[in-house]
Membrane protein
Amino acid sequence: MSDTQKSDLALLLLRVSLGVMALAHGFLLKVLTFTPAGTAQFFESVGYPAFVAYLVILGETLGGLALIAGVFTRLTAVLLLPILIGATLMHVGNGWMFSKPNGGWEFPAFWTVALVVQALLGPGAYSIGRLLPTSLPSFVRA
């Protein structure tokens, strides 16, 4: 296996992992477990307007799907950054370790860095975006 193939495989693993995590947090956790109304209530309890919860749910769910597919990869990674920076800031008072009560900030901080890496590197060769016509804008394919 060549270095290029290894890099493309690494990008696939990074992109799909980030996508699955975003989808799990947006849909499985916030929609199916806590419900959108419950998520909105939590957001209000920590000082955010309720509508922000719905934007986060939408962003994580659609962003997860886009990352898994490898379309809008760079744009999606950048658009997910405010959500993860917000999550990091929400957990910073709980300490470093995510095993602390209410979770620490290590996991969302790492997730933030991984999204920056994904945005810098793009989707890799194994993405649906690479199969789209070259006449489409590059931010769609990358």
